[in-house]
Amino acid sequence: MAGNPVDERFRGLDFAHSPEMLRMFNNIFGLHEFRDNQLEAINATILNKNVFVVGGNGAGKSLCYQLPACLSRGVTVVISPTISLIRDQIQHLNELGIEAWTPPDYQGYSDEESIDEQSLEIVCQLSKIKLLYVTPEKVRMSRPLINALRDQFAKGLLARFVIDEAQCIIEWGNVFRPDYGKLNELQQDFKGVPMIAVSGPTRPQILAKILNQLQMNNRQEASYSRWPDFRFTMNFNPTNLKYAVKPKTLDGGTDCITWIKEHYPHKSGIVYCWKSEYCDQMAKTLNEAGLQACSYHAGTTDRDSVQNRWKENKCQVICATVAFGMGIHKPDVRYVIHSFLPKSMEHYHRETGRAGRDGNVSHCILFFSGNDEKELSFVIRGTNEPMSLQPMVVYCRNTVVCRRRQLHTYFAGVDTEANSCNENAEAICDNCERANAATSDGERICGEVGISVLSERVLEVFDRLPFLD
Ligand SMILES: Nc1ncnc2c1ncn2[C@@H]1O[C@H](COP(=O)(O)OP(=O)(O)OP(=O)(O)O)[C@@H](O)[C@H]1O
Q1: Number of Cβ atoms within 10 Å of the Cβ of 409
Q2: What is d(CA 347, CA 352) in angstroms, rounded to the nearest whole number?
Q3: What is the average pLDDT across 149-160?
Q4: From the CA of 64, how far away is ligand 1's center (Å)?
Q5: Could you tell me the CA-to-CA distances from 210 to 168, 225, 384 in Å, in that order?
Q6: Greater confidence, 271 or 343?
Q7: Is the ipTM of this complex over 0.90?
Q8: Whose C-alpha lies nearest to ligand 1, atom 14?
């Protein structure tokens, strides 16, 4: 990646670890070509640097710690936000033949003797595995786990900490999951153990806050400066996703039915709804219209079986609250529809990133109404949400500029128009119906930019950020 001299050090395949790393990349993970910045992030991780990886859904961020974990002595501790995500990751790794595990809940046995026994059990497991998955709460509060980690640390068998979905630190850290906000304590408790933070798409300002919160400065580096971490940006905005905002009629269900039947009558998709009862209602409406739909939310009793039915294409459309989707790796999701205004651009970007993970063209449709804006503003007002609804509303109301360009501009922090168009405007503007309309008048407004250009810009902005205390 141009523009960041630090990264040059991690280029290439001339490291002592490279042959073995390549063998695992090919034979265990079954992969053949590294994605943008993936090799650099992997090299830096294996070389025990504190690393920060940020990128869009499905960009291949997990490999940046999973592959190094396989090569490292000792265990890699992955801190992950939800049990279902943990289960999915472990299952996926086990299928590849990689040993990964999460400790059981030991509630109810808290005398010293049982704690020692449980610690021993964990230590025993840790000697057999490469990746340990835990929630932030567990890594901070579970005494058997902490004892076991101290034991591994003393033996030099704690390879690194990974903070997966690190954007949650800022989104949740101060509100309802305070342990997220205290993960920096790991740096003090396990001095010298490298840390890798992996974040989904979010703005540079938020990324800087995450780094600051985690105190991820490589202070031992001779070139120490305020932000000396090794940062790698990966694909932020896959070009196979086509974004559109459409007016929502009073009955959002009809909008969805019409759109799905016209575009993907038999293909898999997600309809995001604001509340649980709307999920049930939406699924009912879609079913009545002949689409196979199911509902998924916190109150769904058999959530796993609903999710599996959808994953196996036994149910075509899943109508869900935004609690659904983190860690879902269904490749053939052809559309993500928002029947209600997303809470922020960050949420929107993440939620739409669940479409098209197989790289094929997929659609992200947002049905917008001013009433939803009022309702959501009212609910958000007074809460401690670090993300803002306003840019989302501006995005919905801006009917002139290409959707893709708006997203890029938001995440890169700078308007990308200067780099936005190339000669082949028609092909590019196929990404967004607004841009098509505009280009028919000869205007060059599409915001398509090369992924590397975007990455550079994110980084440039990132580098210019003031230190945040
Ligand atoms: N270099 C690569 N070549 C081909 N496929 C890859 C490569 N790296 C990762 N993948 C595949 O891309 C898919 C997504 O990867 P991964 O789960 O690492 O993404 P992610 O960035 O962590 O996404 P999310 O944040 O949404 O979980 C996986 O199926 C993975 O096997």
Answers
A1: 21
A2: 8
A3: 95
A4: 9
A5: 9, 17, 17
A6: 271
A7: yes
A8: 58
